[in-house]
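#structure-requests
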Amino acid sequence: MVHVFMYYYFFVCTMKFKPPWWKKYLTSLQILQFVVSLVMAVFFVQAHQTSLSLGKRGCSGWNAFLISTAFNFTLLLLFIQFFFVTYSTKKKKPKSK
């Protein structure tokens, strides 16, 4: 769902239409998406640990999960940085002569 809105936003900007007013909310939604994915990762880690404690092999795809989680965490940090740089800093006014 997030990507549908994201690609629509890119389409509108590419076609030189008036940019949507909801860019800030889209960025917030993307941040929420990454937070939710990391919270859900906790359940996968728990399942993996439970499987190991029962003497089983653990969950298949563990290495791919670790790489994916690290990538999602990196993207979360980048989106948070973008959000604060774009929306939280005051724009400097040009000096008048």
